[in-house]
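Students often ask why inverse folding is considered easier than folding. One informal answer: many sequences map to the same fold, so there is more than one right answer. In these notes we will look at a single instance of the problem. The structure comes first.
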């Protein structure tokens, strides 16, 4: 709760103003029945018109003050709760941006989306209710109880008995329902994940005619969520009948005992009238508190889930005095080992000792899951090595400011991502100040200009979210052009030309020599043709270095490389190249 409430920030003033106006509203409402009793006892029963007029005007003024206070409390409550929710979403979003890949791996995409939408909305509604009703109801309850005791102490003991009974019942309901609501919001993640997966892969679903299967999967997730909600709401539904039992029980008891007190002469008609008003105030306060209780029960699970995101500490940090310049593109792996889950004993990379000169072109090849992507992720410090040291420009990557390092180590990831916006907007992710001419030059080097120039709007063509309106090869070439605009000291292509033909692949690699001649280039590929012209080729096998030499020497001396080469060339060629 403390973590979440820190997000109030600039809306603390609105929160306290809400509470202040709510208190003033309650005071006016509590005093109104008391004034009503004075009108009856001192005005009506004595036929004193001046007293009736005086108390009537006083009641009118108090009612206007109560109305104004209620309106202002509502206005400031809306401002505080909406601002609180806005700050929460912003803080969660900023926190996620600071996460390392290992932090992100702990949360599903659907889970993060649910936390920023459904959970924050639950908390927003609960907060608005708390700063109004949770202030109003207890104050109204206590004030009404005090007035009841001032009118008749013995009769007011009925309320104490009712409160004790209600507190026990609500505590039992809250304890049982809160655990169910925690499970409900976890199932929300599964439901959102199902929707996200289906929409993202809708083309595959239709291609394999799996609509019925996907519908059935979604129906099961939705049905499970439905049953959990019914279970939780069934528990909370007990709240209403219990409240009604208490309300009507109190009215019956006060009516019975109050009639006897009036007959005995220990209470006046005005007293019993105001007492009934206070009874309704007490009962309404209890009803409001039960609503707060329901909302808090639902939001407690959301608070826990939001706090998990806000309290998650990024595993990668900048050093106290970071190095702000990368001298060159040399890369050194000094006996590096790496595991995604530290301490499991399952290393993805094991004892990697590798030294690359600045400006070299290095190819990396190996089977699926051998650690190629993991290796290059350590260079831009998307992860930290478990053992050993990774150096860029002669310095440990952990000594650099991470933004500086990642600006100089440009990565075209295995999963190419484009964002909604024009082609120029996407290209300028590489360099936000790049001119259109610079963007065109980078696209020419990446062989992207040939299809961009054929588009009706050229570089102003709109790219849909995720780049769904361009082909896989076009997406790859745009991502390469985006990386080239950074003019990095190290360029990493993580299987980034797999969707283009070998002729285009060769053109892109040749263009690198003129566009970024001094840049160290690391090319991960499944095709030998993509790496055979590199200065040296690294062969990885099961997270270990199996060979590191030129194409010719590896053909002679490395069995794995030779097998890959022969299977691709003797089996009919690589894409459009004849064997």
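Output (designed amino acids):
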């Amino acid at each position: 709760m403390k973590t979440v409430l820190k997000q109030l920030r600039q809306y603390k003033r609105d929160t306290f103003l809400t509470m202040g106006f709510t208190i003033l509203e309650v005071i006016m409402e509590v005093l109104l029945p008391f004034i009503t009793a004075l009108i009856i006892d001192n005005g009506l029963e004595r036929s004193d018109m001046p007293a009736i007029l005086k108390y009537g005007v006083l009641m009118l003024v108090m009612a206007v003050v109560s109305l104004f206070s209620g309106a202002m409390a509502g206005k400031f409550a809306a401002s505080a709760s909406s601002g609180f929710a806005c700050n929460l979403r912003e803080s969660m979003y900023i926190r996620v941006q600071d996460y390392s890949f290992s932090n992100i791996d702990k949360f599903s995409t659907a889970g993060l989306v649910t936390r920023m939408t459904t959970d924050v909305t639950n908390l927003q509604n609960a907060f608005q209710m708390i700063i109004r009703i949770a202030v109003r109801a207890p104050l109204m309850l206590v004030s009404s109880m005090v007035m009841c005791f001032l009118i008749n102490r013995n009769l007011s003991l009925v309320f104490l008995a009712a409160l004790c009974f209600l507190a026990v019942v609500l505590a039992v309901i809250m304890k049982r329902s809160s655990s169910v609501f925690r499970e409900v919001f976890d199932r929300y993640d599964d439901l959102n994940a199902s929707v996200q997966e289906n929409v993202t892969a809708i083309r595959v679903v239709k291609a394999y005619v799996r609509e019925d299967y996907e519908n059935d999967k979604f129906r099961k997730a939705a049905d499970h969520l439905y049953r959990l909600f019914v279970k939780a709401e069934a528990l909370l539904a007990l709240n209403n009948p219990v409240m009604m039992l208490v309300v009507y029980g109190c009215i019956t008891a006060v009516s019975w005992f109050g009639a006897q007190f009036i007959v005995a002469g220990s209470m006046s008609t005005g007293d019993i009238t105001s007492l009934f008003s206070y009874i309704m105030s007490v009962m309404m306060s209890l009803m409001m508190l039960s609503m707060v209780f329901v909302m808090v029960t639902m939001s407690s699970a959301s608070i826990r889930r939001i706090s998990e995101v806000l309290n998650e500490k990024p595993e990668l940090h900048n050093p106290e005095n970071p190095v702000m310049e990368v001298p060159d593109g040399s890369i050194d792996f000094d006996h590096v080992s790496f595991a995604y889950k530290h301490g499991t004993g399952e290393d993805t990379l094991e004892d990697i000792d590798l030294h690359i000169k600045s400006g070299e072109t290095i190819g990396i090849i190996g089977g699926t899951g051998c650690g190629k992507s993991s290796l290059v992720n350590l260079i831009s410090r998307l992860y930290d090595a478990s053992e050993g040291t990774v150096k860029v420009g002669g310095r440990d990557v952990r000594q650099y400011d991470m933004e500086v390092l990642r600006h100089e180590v440009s990565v075209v990831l295995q999963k190419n991502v484009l964002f909604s916006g024009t082609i120029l907007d996407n290209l300028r992710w590489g360099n936000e100040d790049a001119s259109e001419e610079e963007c065109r030059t980078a696209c020419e080097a990446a062989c992207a200009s040939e299809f961009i120039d054929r588009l009706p709007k050229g570089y102003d063509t709109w790219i849909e979210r995720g780049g769904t309106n361009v082909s896989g090869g076009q997406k790859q070439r745009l991502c390469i052009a985006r990386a080239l605009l950074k003019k990095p000291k190290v360029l990493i292509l993580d299987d980034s030309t797999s969707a283009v033909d070998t002729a285009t692949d060769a053109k892109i690699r040749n263009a690198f020599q003129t566009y970024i001649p001094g840049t160290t280039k690391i090319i991960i590929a499944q095709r030998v043709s993509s790496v055979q012209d590199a200065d040296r080729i690294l062969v990885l096998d099961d997270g270990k270095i199996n060979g590191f030499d030129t194409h010719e020497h590896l053909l002679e001396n490395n069995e794995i490389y030779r097998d890959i080469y022969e299977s691709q060339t003797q089996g009919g060629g690589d894409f459009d190249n004849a064997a």
